[in-house]
Every structure is written in C-alpha cells, then in structure tokens.
C-alpha cells in the first residue's frame, strides 16, 4: 500500500497536470511573491518587492492573453519548510505560474527543488548564495540581483588592494553567511591576504558583543560582515559602541543595501565601501524609477526591489514574446531577450540561471557631503559583468556543457 502522503502528492501532481496546457492558457497569468514581511530582511525586500511587482505588471499593461495578470504574496518567515509548503500549494492548486523573491538562500534552495518537480519558473531576487547558479543550479530558476561571488569579488578585492590584507569574519550561521565567508575568503587569499578566523552567529541576532570581542581579539585589519539586513545594521552599531573602528580595525559589509545605510545614518555608515547592483541616482532611468517608487513606498528602492521590478517585467515580456506560458519556452525566451530597464542596461540571462550585469562599487558619503535624503553614495567604479560574476565554466552547474 502506498503511503497517504505519497498518494496526496501524486493527486496534487495529477491535478496540476490536468489544468495544462489548454485550461492553463485560459486562466489569468499569476505571479507569487514569497518574501520576508516581518523579520531581518523585510526592509531590503518585503512589501517593497510586492510594490515593485505591481509596478512591473502595471507598466506592462496589466493584461496577458486578454486577461488581467494576478499577483499573490506570502511571508515565508525565513523558514525553508514554510516556503516549500506555500510554493507547493501555489503550484498544485492555485495556478501560480512564476514565483519571485525568496528572502534567504535556504528558502530559495528549498523552493528550487519544488520548481524542478513541477517544472515551474522561479526568479530569485533577494537570496544571495552563489550555489543557486553553481552546484544547485536549475533549468527553471533565474538569479537576478547579485550573489556572494560578485559581492565578494567587487568589495573584497578592492579592500585587499587598499591594504586590508588580514580578515576575521562575523558570519550568519546558515547557507548565505557561509557562502559569503567562503567566497570572500577565496578572494582575500587569492589577492595575497590572510583569513585569521571567523565566528558564527544565529540569524536575527540582537546581541553581537561576544562575537565582536572575538573579532577584536583577532587583531585582523578587516572584520568582514558575512551577514545581511538587520544583522549587518546591529553589528555595525554595536561595533561602534565597542570602539572597534576607533581602535584601528575596519568593517567590511560584503552585502549591504541603501536601506541599511538609511537605518544607520551617515554618521555611523560614512566611509564604508560597498557594492550594489542598482542605485537610484546613477542615471535618468534609475532616478525616474526611484522617484516613482518613493512616491508609492515613501522610501527609495533597494537593489533587490529594483531587481524584482526588472525580473517581473522581463518575465512578462518573455511570456508575451513566446505566446505561451509554457515553462521551457518562456525560459528560452528570457535567455534570448536582453535585459534593458530601470535596473540595468546590459543584462543577459545565462544558461546556468545567472543574470549577469554591471555591478557598482560605492563609498558611503560623509554627512556633510550629502545633499539631501537618500543621497548616500559616491560612485567609485562600474564593474563589468564579466569581471563581477563568476565565469560560467567555473560554477559547477550541471546544465553547463
């Protein structure tokens, strides 16, 4: 006798199969946003990603195949099992065509396995592990915004070249933090630097004192923050209270966002070297999108929110150009079409799922250099895609011949 769970799963897959292809083409196209609405990554994605998705749908025209485009959203609570449960329900019974966002690497990797099972498209705009397009790559997943390899190479190499050649890492203890530490450590060592050690901390930590004391005791020139969102903000604030920077050590925020700088304020964040894929004040297109977003959300968009707009719009253009919502056909069209929008002028979706584009190296302005709210960055360099992202042949993606 087959287990009940197996029968239920089989029934779900059968029901999903029964609604395609003819009935699926008749139903409204539906996009699902799986995000963090209540925890450490809510500022960098969250409701801002929902609003960005809505903006893309509106800018596309709001309809596909003569019917309004639908959108649903849910909070994954940064738990892979919760993310999987919601994604399974959406794909099996609610007719969701594409899922976007995924706030952590653990949730992204979990839902990627389901996307293979259901042969459905997902686009990762928040999670950062380079494994998403490396050993864990999928023919149905696109990774849009940034990843730990790109950030490590853009920020890490710049810091080592400027004398920051000994490092100690404060690392969020899950796949994202481990990927940041691994990829940045590789860059430091390749540039002739040394990694003196690291300490792991739980996600969404309130008290960094014991971890910062270990970093301070290491005497490393650079304390690498292999974390993100609220954890990065708390670590920087508490490092200031401990006088770590005043004592001669410097902080390197490998993955940092304009929302983090806004929360910290320029007095605390000034001088930080960071990398981003988007900044609202780069050019006319980024400024136009940033101002529209600001009017709706009352905050400038993070790179993840701008990327969610871009990825949604690109997906819709691909469905329209393909004339179908069939997954493999749409993915092929997404790779064929160039990505040109408010997020990037030079994007290309590769075979391994990595959307490559320019990255930017910024320095956070001093308070007296800022001309007003959200005027936070000085551009140091534009890093071309082929220098920022891991070469296709080096990722270990089984899809790459």
Written overview of the protein:
- The chain is an alpha/beta fold and 401 residues long.
- It has two domains: 29-146 and 282-353, Response regulator (Rossmann fold); 163-276 and 360-385, Response regulator (Rossmann fold, 3-Layer(aba) Sandwich), CATH 3.40.50.
- The protein has helices at residues 4-18, 22-26, 46-60, 80-93, 105-118, 148-161, 175-190, 209-217, 230-241, 258-264, 266-269, 284-297, 303-322, 327-336, 385-388, and strands at 30-35, 63-64, 67-68, 70-75, 98-101, 121-124, 141-143, 166-172, 194-201, 222-226, 250-253, 273-276, 348-349, 355-356, 359-364, 377-383.
- The strands form five sheets. The chain has a five-stranded parallel sheet, sandwiched between helices.
- The chain is globular, with a radius of gyration of 21 Å.
